[in-house]
Amino acid sequence: MTTHETQVVDSGTDALTFQRYQLTTAGGVSTVFDKRLIYVGTAPDSDFVIDDPTASRAHARLEFDGQGYILRDLASKNGTWIGGVRIREAYLPTPCTVRFGRTEVAFDVLGEQVEVELSRANSFGSLLGESTEMREIFALLAKVARSDVSVLVQGESGTGKELVAEAIQSHSARRAAPFVIFDCSAVPPDLAESELFGHVKGAFTGAVGNRVGVFEAAHKGTLFLDEIGELPLELQPKLLRALEKGEFKPVGDNQRKVADVRVIAATNRNLTQEVRDGNFREDLYYRLAVIKVSLPPLRKRPDDIPLLVQRFLRMSGSTDVQVSWETMDRLKAHPWQGNVRELKNYVERAVVLAEHGRLETRHLSASPDSGAIRASLNGSEATLTVDFDLPFKDAKARLTDTFESRYWGRLLQRTGGNISEAARRGGIHRKSLEYLLKKLDL
Q1: Whose CB among 174, 194, 207, 351 lies 3.0–4.6 Å from 203's, allowing a Cys bridge?
Q2: Spatial contact of 158 and 165, defined as CB atoms under 8 Å apart
Q3: Could you tell me if 197 and 251 are in contact, meaning their C-beta atoms sit under 8 angstroms apart?
């Protein structure tokens, strides 16, 4: 008989103990998991990827909740089935066979025990959440903050990656030292090296004096490299050397400098895929990802929304605004493409427009101040709508997704679904296009 237990580890965390488990496809390919929570679907960033057009991108989630392994269908288009019965939520017997769409997968537990720590607090720094997912992250961050290793924070735009870096810094021995932010996506490629490592007078046209780069400015402190996936490929070896040796050379200088810097990097890209595509150095990836922190999108932790709404109401000074059960239920069901940042913007907007002291979901719609861009996609006119109510990065990401979906959808129509030919016409590698098609659910 399998036993599970939750026990106290120290004054701030609990330990959740469960057994490793495996999922096996009909072809006999097995994947072993020691994660408490995984997602199953056709999306390439799923923990268990299903290559089946009848399955959904985010088809189901499998979670150990302290009682057993609970499988939840995520409103998939063709359902999740156990023993011929379609389920919305069920504890899995062991062993058993689960069907996602038309794909059958065997589930079984193994003998090895896994222990996961959960924070008892519902916050860490400015991060907030009472879901099991976030409490697991808080326990990890508390440990990471006490060390000095590099950290890679992964997550969609708006999930709070910068807040993770700030929380680690504020709980570390470097808390009194500089915390420097460098956004790799906001600097032109030809200036990135100078911004990172500085330059000396006369190093290039316009260099009228010496300039200290962010690496030197963060000496004894923490350097947060946001959107690390945007760092130019030719600059990556120099960053790797700076991380490994603590040495760097300003542009135009023959002398190397030394800096003691803890680096936390963040990305909303799939860096392992970028490594496979040759867009990111593998050695730099492993140097940055000593510890990986993956932030779940808000739509995957809806139970945290009431707590977040109350915080944003307090921040707006509107604690007297009421939120009905029906309104909160709708907020929890909203997709939140812009994640926590979008929720914060909604609360601020809804407070201003609130009538009779009540928050209303009609203010979830895009603001009237949105614009449409006419674009020619493969010779055909199309309209791409820009939501100016979103932060720049979120609006850009949403617009990019729409463009990519329409561009490749039209090109695949023209090539009769021939992926190789579509990749050739689009000027990218076939493997890269296959990844895009999965991401876009085409």
Answers
A1: 207
A2: no
A3: yes
